[in-house]
């Protein structure tokens, strides 16, 4: 006997579990199916984000930042500690405990919202009267029928051609988050968000880290002035980043990994490391979904094809998150999930892609929303720019971290904020003010006239807005 649901969500990452909860809040009878298991075989909902992405990476970034502060900066505060040491297995265990808290939290939220959770691999069987039949292959097999289906099956790390992940020497994000001891030498291929975050963790713990990047420009999606400032800070920290490289061979036959490549000048180089993290992007995951059984359209890159409202080519089948076009970000998946659940319930969900923030959680952090200076130039938009350095911010001085700046870009005529770009301490938190402002179509003058608590890092946001009109008060 099949079990009937109004909505079946496949995947319980940030796209899936949020879609399930929102649909349940709107009165739907909802099932959510997820295949992720702990080492003990128990359910681990939360997807990439919770298990091997956003949450564990931030846990390790925090631990390694504490370690670096204790080693390098406590002395400035008059604190002496003796020799500072790191117990890597304990750091990893703390990270694992945080992941588990999040897994358990999602299971609790399912109960609270009366979402029925199934642990196992979901696949399409066929279209049936009033919806679709879905098979769940778990400890036991179940057949479900759903009137509406939301696919949120996420993404997997992309391997270098011919160099599969063994998670011992050649690591994806999964292996990179559970290295048992700080390696002496670590190589990283890809200077994107994940590469820089992982590189920072292990560099802080004493590893010699070399990042090889194929593109000749550092962080091309980031405002050039901000990317330059970030690069300067990473160089100073000793994170070696080589741009414009071409990998020719990766040899894993020895004790470590030997990477042969040509550098930007075309010279042949060899990098020998103990471990190699490959972070060259992610591919949409439709493995095991049996999309062909119902004719669900997938493009040449393996992504489920959707329209602006996340509708697939099949009536009643939706897809959200990393498995569809757009930035692979947890909050993008969540916003699409809420919008889809609301559309299913007859409401008018909406996602504003123009105000999706992006963050790199290194030190300094990098955060931005809206268009950057190079994009505005390309588009021929007339704009005014204002910047304010953290060097001139009292709270940043008190924190002992004055790296970076806040930068505003506003329309030359209307003063509407077109983009806000930040590099510096805690800018992952500061960027939200800019997102709110842009959602409300604020002008830089609006932010410049709002009272910000003193002393706070957020005063730099106000000052950068003042700088648009060349009237900073503290610089
Ligand atoms: C190291 C790292 C750090 C990151 N840091 C950030 C960050 O700081 N901020 C940010 O916004 N984003 C970050 N991301 C990206 C973020 O993790 C993803 O954008 C997000 O997880 C996508 O959510 P999703 O729900 O689409 O997919 P996922 O989180 O990948 O979840 C998909 C789920 O579906 C399940 N599944 C797949 N197929 C089936 C099936 N057939 N049946 C049942 N279950 C199935 C999977 O097991 C998984 O649990 C990071 C990613 C990585 C790798």
Here the CATH topology of the largest domain equals FAD/NAD(P)-binding domain
- Care to count the β-strands? 21
Q: Write down the oligomeric state.
A: single chain
Helix count equals: 13
Strands ordered across the widest β-sheet: 1-2-3-4-5
What is the CATH architecture descriptor of the largest domain? 3-Layer(bba) Sandwich
Characterize the structure shown.
With 475 residues, the chain is of the alpha/beta class. The chain folds into 3 domains: 3-154 and 285-345, FAD/NAD(P)-binding domain, CATH 3.50.50.60; 158-280, 3-Layer(bba) Sandwich (FAD/NAD(P)-binding domain); 357-469, Enolase-like, domain 1, CATH 3.30.390.30. 31% of the residues lie in helices and 26% in strands. It is built from 13 helices and 21 strands. The strands form 5 sheets. The protein has a 5-stranded mixed barrel with strand order 1-2-3-4-5. α1 runs parallel beside α8 (330-344), α3 (54-73) packs antiparallel against α4 (88-112) and α3 (54-73) runs parallel beside α6 (193-204). The chain is globular and about 70 Å long. Bound molecules: flavin-adenine dinucleotide. Residues 10-16, 33-36, 47-49, 53-54, 57, 121-122, 152-155, 173, 194, 285, 288-289, 321-323, 328-331, 333, 361 line the site of flavin-adenine dinucleotide. This is Dihydrolipoyl dehydrogenase. It is found in: Cytoplasm. Keywords: Cytoplasm, FAD, Flavoprotein, NAD, Nucleotide-binding, Oxidoreductase, Redox-active center.
Task: Write the SSE topology.
Blueprint: E1 3-10, H1 14-25, E2 30-34, H2 47-52, H3 54-73, H4 88-112, E3 116-128, E4 131-138, E5 141-151, E6 155-157, E7 170-171, H5 173-176, E8 185-189, H6 193-204, E9 208-212, H7 224-237, E10 240-242, E11 246-251, E12 257-262, E13 268-273, E14 275-278, E15 282-284, E16 317-319, H8 330-344, E17 358-360, E18 365-370, H9 373-378, E19 383-389, H10 394-399, E20 405-411, E21 417-424, H11 427-439, H12 444-448, H13 459-468
Parallel strand pairs: 1-2, 1-5, 2-3, 5-16, 7-14, 8-9, 8-14, 9-10
Antiparallel strand pairs: 3-4, 4-5, 6-15, 11-12, 12-13, 17-18, 18-21, 19-20, 20-21
Helix pairs in contact: 1-8, 3-4, 3-6
Bound molecules: flavin-adenine dinucleotide.
Flavin-adenine dinucleotide binds next to helix 1, strand 2, helix 2, helix 3 and strand 3.
């Amino acid at each position: 006997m099949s079990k009937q649901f109004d909505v079946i969500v496949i995947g319980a990452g940030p796209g899936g579990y949020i879609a399930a909860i929102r649909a349940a809040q709107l009165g739907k009878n909802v099932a959510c199916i997820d295949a992720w298991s702990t080492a003990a075989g128990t359910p681990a909902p939360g997807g990439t984000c919770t298990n091997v992405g956003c949450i564990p990476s931030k846990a390790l970034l925090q631990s390694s930042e504490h370690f670096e502060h204790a080693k390098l900066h406590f002395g400035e505060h008059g604190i002496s500690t003796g020799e500072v040491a790191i117990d890597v297995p304990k750091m990893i265990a703390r990270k694992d405990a945080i992941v588990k808290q999040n897994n358990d939290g999602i299971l609790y939220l399912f109960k609270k919202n009366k979402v029925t959770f199934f642990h196992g691999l979901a696949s399409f069987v066929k279209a049936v009267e009033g919806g679709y039949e879905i098979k769940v292959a778990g400890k036991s097999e179940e057949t479900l029928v759903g009137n509406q289906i939301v696919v949120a099956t996420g993404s997997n790390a992309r391997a270098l051609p011919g160099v599969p992940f063994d998670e011992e020497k050649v690591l994806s994000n999964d292996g990179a988050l559970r290295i048992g001891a700080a390696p002496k030498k670590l190589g990283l291929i890809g200077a994107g968000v994940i590469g820089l975050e992982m590189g920072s963790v292990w560099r802080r713990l004493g590893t010699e880290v070399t990042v090889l990047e194929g593109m000749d420009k550092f962080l091309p999606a980031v405002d050039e002035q901000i990317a330059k400032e970030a690069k300067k800070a990473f160089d100073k920290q000793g994170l070696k980043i080589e741009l414009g490289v071409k990998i020719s061979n990766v040899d894993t036959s020895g004790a470590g990994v030997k990477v042969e490549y040509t550098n930007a000048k075309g010279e042949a180089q060899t990098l020998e490391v103990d471990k190699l993290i490959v972070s060259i992007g992610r591919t949409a995951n439709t493995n095991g979904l049996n999309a062909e059984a119902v004719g669900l359209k997938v493009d040449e890159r393996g992504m489920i094809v959707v329209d602006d409202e996340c509708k697939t080519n099949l009536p009643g089948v939706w897809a959200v998150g990393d498995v569809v076009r757009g930035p692979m970000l947890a909050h993008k998946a969540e916003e699409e999930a809420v919008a889809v659940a609301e559309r299913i319930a007859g409401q008018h969900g909406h996602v504003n892609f123009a105000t999706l923030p992006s963050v790199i959680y290194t030190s300094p952090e990098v955060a931005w929303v809206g268009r950057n200076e190079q994009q505005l130039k390309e588009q021929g938009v007339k704009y005014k720019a204002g910047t304010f350095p953290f060097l001139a911010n009292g709270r940043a001085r008190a924190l002992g971290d004055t790296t970076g700046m806040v930068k505003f870009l506003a329309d030359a005529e209307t003063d509407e904020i077109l983009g806000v770009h930040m590099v510096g301490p805690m800018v992952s938190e500061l960027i939200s003010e800019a997102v709110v402002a842009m959602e409300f179509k604020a002008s830089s003058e609006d932010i410049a006239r709002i009272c910000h608590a003193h002393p706070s890092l957020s005063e730099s946001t106000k000052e950068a807005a003042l700088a648009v009109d060349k009237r900073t008060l503290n610089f």
